[in-house]
Amino acid sequence: MCIFAHRLDEGGTCFQLHPQFRQHLRAYLDHRLNEDGKLRHTYASAWFARNGDWQLAVQRAFPAGETLQALEWARRCAIEEVAKGNLSLVLGWLGKSRKANS
User: Fold this and answer.
1) How far apart are CA 47 and CA 42, in angstroms?
2) Per-residue DSSP letter, 29
3) Residues 17-26 pLDDT 10s
């Protein structure tokens, strides 16, 4: 048994980290990879995009400073999000893009 993580499934493929250990790793990676975490957001947004989760890809691309990429991904899912009743989400993305371009 590990004090830093525990298994979530029988196969041992999914784990959950202890909250303090997760916080330590996140702080370490932020410091090591990029002071403000932009690189972490870039990797996360690319991963979400590869897996077809456009909403999360867009949300992570903005703090990464990838405004053009975020808008491209937003274009892919904006109509679907509005149809689901998430107009405020799409408008928020537009607001973030305007702030980034100012």
Assistant:
1) 9
2) H
3) 888 888 988 8
Measure CA of the first residue to CA of the last residue in the chain; give whole Å.
52
At how many degrees (to 10) do helices 38-50 and 67-83 cross? 50
Alpha carbons 52 and 2: distance in angstroms, whole number: 33
What pLDDT sits at residue 45?
93
- Span 87-91, average pLDDT: 86
Structure tokens at 41: 């957001």
Phi and psi for 7 in degrees, rounded to 5? -70, 140
| Amino acid of residue 1 | M
pTM above 0.70, yes or no: no
Q: How far is CA 44 from CA 30, 35, 55, 58, 78, in A?
A: 13, 16, 12, 10, 20
